[in-house]
């Protein structure tokens, strides 16, 4: 994908250098907008970076028809060239020398997320331009009045196809990088379109439509609301960071107090996330799963005497459920998402059927129960002097004996496939 994007932008730059730039003032305005958008990026859930203003500007240029009532003729390759130059200019601030006392930031080209975002932007914008520009320059779009609903419906269709293209490329990259199944990755990317993605698409369409009447003033006029939306997303990101700090503190509390072995919560969370990816959970579900896995032992703080090695999997079912519910009550008072407390409350319930009339046990709770038991059994095996390989085989065999009754069969089978990721 990176090679395809690089080849496309080189081809576009070469073509523009040979043919010259059409409508230089317009090209410079959109280049500056894309570069500015690249400088004010935001981080979305799942640690995904996005440049909403730059993405909207590039889409608007790809869908740009008349400008103040006059036709444009920049074409596909100039759209790609302007987008590529804007991306490169947006990377220039990242080339400044590192100043002492400030956090070190990798150069943009050394950041895989920035490279992937740039490749996706170039390919998806090139796709949008390839659909729209030939039809516009060929006169087929002239059948629609720019003020009529048919023209707006046509732009909406092209923008939706471009968004689908970008989501598909993002899902392919995530599936190859994280091992997440492609259908789950695609579903997660499509779901994210209803957030900032829909604002990007709508802004790009509005800019292209409004430019036909007001010209380049459409760029600042319709990109300002998107900038305000970015500020809201930044505040939401700060709330998520505070939540993460709360979770980290609670997760360490049991270790500091001596109720669980060092690193137990992290190992359980790593194994749970590996199982979640194997079972096709999306980004949001994986984030909630990780939160619940990190805090699954908080209820042990209510015990007078610590459980040896914190191995709650070796306790009676009733005692496990009591600890889980006490932990859930603590978590529910911390501002952590409600689903996390629910998952912790149910993680000790038998998977074979409803418990206490509360309905089926959530998949996340079943995953954490298997991950926790796996680490508890491994810790017990190490205490008996067994090797790592033998301990893993023994732990997996114990889990298989409870398969379908105590532990969810699908989760145990997934553990056998991934081999247990919580190490250390």
From TrEMBL:
Q: Which organism is it from?
A: Kitasatospora aureofaciens
Q: Which domain of life is it from?
A: Bacteria
Determine if Secreted is one of this entry's keywords.
Answer: no
SUPFAM superfamilies documented for this protein: HD-domain/PDEase-like
Question: Membrane-crossing residues?
Answer: 76-97, 118-136, 148-173, 193-211
Positions of the HD domain: 263-373
Which InterPro entries is this protein grouped with?
Cyclic_di-GMP/3'3'-cGAMP_PDE, HD/PDEase_dom, HD_domain
Entry keywords, A to Z: Membrane, Transmembrane, Transmembrane helix
For whether the record's keyword set contains Repeat, the answer is no
| This protein's name | HD domain-containing protein
């Amino acid at each position: 994908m990176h090679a395809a994007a690089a080849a496309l932008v080189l081809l576009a730059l070469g073509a523009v250098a040979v043919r010259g730039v059409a409508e230089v003032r317009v090209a410079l305005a959109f280049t500056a907008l894309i570069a500015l958008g690249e400088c004010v990026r935001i981080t979305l859930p799942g640690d995904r970076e996005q440049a909403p203003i730059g993405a909207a500007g590039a889409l608007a240029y790809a869908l740009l028809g008349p400008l103040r009532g006059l036709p444009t003729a920049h074409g596909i390759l100039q759209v790609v060239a302007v987008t590529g130059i804007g991306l490169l200019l947006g990377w220039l601030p990242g080339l400044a020398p590192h100043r002492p006392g400030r956090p070190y930031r990798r150069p943009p080209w050394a950041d895989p997320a920035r490279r992937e975002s740039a490749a996706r932007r170039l390919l998806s914008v090139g796709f949008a331009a390839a659909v729209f520009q030939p039809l516009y320059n060929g006169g087929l779009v002239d059948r629609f009045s720019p003020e009529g609903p048919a023209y707006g419906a046509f732009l909406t269709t092209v923008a939706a196809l471009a968004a689908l293209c970008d989501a598909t490329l993002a899902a392919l990259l995530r599936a190859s990088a994280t091992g997440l199944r492609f259908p789950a990755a695609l579903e997660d990317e499509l779901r994210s379109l209803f957030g900032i993605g829909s604002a990007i698409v709508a802004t790009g369409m509005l800019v292209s439509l409004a430019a036909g009447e007001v010209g380049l003033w459409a760029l600042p006029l319709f990109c300002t609301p998107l900038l305000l939306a970015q500020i809201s997303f930044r505040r939401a990101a700060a709330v998520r960071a505070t939540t993460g700090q709360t979770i980290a503190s609670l997760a360490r509390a049991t270790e500091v107090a001596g109720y669980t072995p060092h690193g137990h919560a992290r190992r359980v969370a790593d194994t749970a996330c590996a199982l979640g990816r194997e079972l096709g959970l999306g980004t949001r579900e994986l984030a909630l799963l990780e939160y619940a896995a990190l805090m699954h032992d908080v209820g042990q703080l209510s015990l007078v005497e610590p459980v040896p090695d914190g191995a709650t999997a070796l306790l009676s079912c009733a005692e496990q459920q009591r600890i889980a519910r006490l932990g859930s009550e603590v978590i529910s008072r911390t501002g952590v998402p409600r689903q996390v407390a629910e998952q912790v409350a149910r993680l000790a319930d038998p998977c074979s059927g409803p418990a206490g009339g509360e309905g089926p046990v959530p998949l996340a709770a079943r995953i954490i129960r298997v991950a926790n038991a796996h680490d508890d059994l491994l810790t017990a095996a190490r205490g008996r002097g067994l090797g790592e390989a033998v301990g893993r085989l023994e732990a997996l065999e114990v889990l298989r004996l409870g398969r379908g009754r105590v532990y969810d069969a699908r989760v145990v089978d997934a553990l056998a496939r991934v081999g247990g990721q919580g190490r250390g």
